[in-house]
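Escalation from tier 1.

The customer reports that the assembly of four entities below gives different structure tokens on two consecutive runs. Tier 1 could not reproduce it. I'm attaching the input and our single run for tier 2 to review.
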Amino acid sequence: MSTAEETAGGEAQAWGEVTPDAARRLLVAAVEAFAERGYHATTTRDIAGRAGMSPAALYIHYKTKEELLHRISRIGHEKALEILRTAARREGTARERLAGAVSSFVRWHAGGRTTARVVQYELDSLGPDARAEILALRRQCDAEVRAIIEDGVAAGEFDVLDVKGTTLAVLSLCIDVARWFNVDGPWTPDEVGALYADLVLRMVGDK
Amino acid sequence: MSTAEETAGGEAQAWGEVTPDAARRLLVAAVEAFAERGYHATTTRDIAGRAGMSPAALYIHYKTKEELLHRISRIGHEKALEILRTAARREGTARERLAGAVSSFVRWHAGGRTTARVVQYELDSLGPDARAEILALRRQCDAEVRAIIEDGVAAGEFDVLDVKGTTLAVLSLCIDVARWFNVDGPWTPDEVGALYADLVLRMVGDK
DNA sequence: GGTCGCACTAAGCGCTCGCTCACCTTCGGC
DNA sequence: GCCGAAGGTGAGCGAGCGCTTAGTGCGACC
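Tier 1 run:
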């Protein structure tokens, strides 16, 4: 279930769609810098330097530093939503779909931790319009997970007291992986994904 | 189980120990500003302004802006550790102690969200020495929760596959409350605490 | 009631930030 | 062989940053 694209290098993932080449290099450099230091502590000179370009080159491809964050955040959220949507709409029981959704979502947060960190934790650095757009994508992520849990409850597979609260807790648990996961630590992304799928099935009272 | 101190106003909590008055006002102002905008996006002029003082006044009580963050972080972590330690060392079964620890820890993160946000998410803005000191306090938090879970497993109360991983997941779940909890949202800190205690007991296979 | 100590302020220093602008190179089309 | 567009650079602007310093107001004490 884990693909090369998801875990290879962790980071050289979904940016293929960004063109031209120089714009992509700047974007990848920005992801790394934002993940390491945070958006506000990162300078445009640092981003350009990592991409092997002069500070002025950044403004040929992006209007502002914030536009870089916005682009990263949108692409990242679209990827996250795609992962959840694919898992949610597969054939199978609710338990199978929930376990698949959690394990692949967690693998993405662990393996692509650099990207996930920016996507999940730098949201407040966006302006109001950009943030509103991203929050809409988040609500769609929430809806996908909630739909699986509701299916499981309706089918008598799950035993849940508070569907809304449990959905939030499941997503929260997965997202926080991006905060603590360490590539040099004792677990692989696959292992954390498997552990978390088990924990989440317990949370929803899977029988 | 919820005390006035934990939830009153959410924020006017443990800072009583900070003296003199002007130093405390600056510290409280810094907590609010860091929580709203993040450490790097907060200016010393903003902190001093919120405390009703001139920018220079800050440097009478604190050597640098980073010292403010360090002090906030240490006091906050000590409070968090105290909450877990108190719950862990109470009389009772492992299930009772774990439920108590989770519900009070979550209440602290939800009710004192402003403080908790700074404590949990601005760690990387500290220098190496200060960060090392804070990380030691975190490891103690981890040890308290793990001890309860190990007790429960030994007593046959819990059924856990991976004690270390589950401990991490439980703490991760509680900590992330500081990211998403909204005072104007549909839940009170008490309600989230109760929900999360139930979810965590499910995660550890409580019978 | 003079004076000493201290919390505090107004002004500003040196620096780095995000961003701009004048200019340079490369290259496909005629 | 010339030209214009596209993509790049070096230098630097105005602003705002963290922090300092010279000076002020004021209460405690002899």
